[in-house]
From TrEMBL:
GO molecular function terms noted in the UniProt entry: ubiquitin protein ligase activity
Source organism of this protein record: Phoenicopterus ruber ruber
One Pfam assignment: HECT
SUPFAM superfamilies assigned: Hect, E3 ligase catalytic domain (SSF56204)
UniProt lineage: Eukaryota, Metazoa, Chordata, Craniata, Vertebrata
Reaction it catalyzes: S-ubiquitinyl-[E2 ubiquitin-conjugating enzyme]-L-cysteine + [acceptor protein]-L-lysine = [E2 ubiquitin-conjugating enzyme]-L-cysteine + N(6)-ubiquitinyl-[acceptor protein]-L-lysine
Class of the enzyme per the UniProt entry, highest EC level: transferase
EC number: 2.3.2.26
Residues of the active site: 134
Keyword terms: Transferase, Ubl conjugation pathway
HECT domain residues: 1-142
Gene3D superfamilies membership: Hect, E3 ligase catalytic domain, Hect, E3 ligase catalytic domains
Record GO biological process: protein polyubiquitination
The protein's name: HECT-type E3 ubiquitin transferase
């Protein structure tokens, strides 16, 4: 029985996925050569590939820069009040809206900077917030 279980476990976790894994590994190593990844410990490599999953939202607020706004403007104060009342999942959805990802790159929130800009439209009540994900700019109408 032990031999059967050992052979079955080996088949399920190794042999049955060998071909798909080899295909994946070949494609992955074509774009990311293994010699470049050997300098990382497993935890560091996971952080580089996945980014940060636990976020300090107050630090995010502290690092934001403003264009056409001051951090004490009523619109900005209201934005952050509402933002901090959101559940964690909605805050991550905001990150997706802003950056295209619900995670912060591996160098951390300390270096993650984005802008909140006034789109300076004639009728701000007729304009929705929008974002430039490449430039990390949230266009927030007054």
């Amino acid at each position: 029985r032990k031999e059967f279980v050992d052979l079955y476990v080996n088949y399920v976790f190794n042999e049955s996925i060998q071909k798909p894994f080899e295909d994946f590994m070949q494609g992955f190593l074509r774009g990311c050569p293994a010699r470049k990844w050997k300098m990382f410990l497993p935890g560091e490599l996971q952080l580089v590939l996945q980014g940060h999953t636990k976020l300090d939202w107050r630090l995010l607020q502290k690092n934001v820069m403003y264009r056409g706004y001051d951090k004490l403007d009523r619109t900005i104060r209201n934005f952050w009040t509402v933002f901090h009342e959101l559940p964690e999942e909605k805050k991550k959805m905001f990150l997706v809206f802003l950056s295209g990802s619900d995670r912060i790159p591996g160098d951390g929130l300390e270096r993650f900077r984005f802008f909140i800009a006034d789109p300076q439209v004639e009728n701000p009540d007729e304009v929705y917030p929008s974002a430039s994900t490449c430039s990390l700019i949230l266009f927030l109408p007054r």
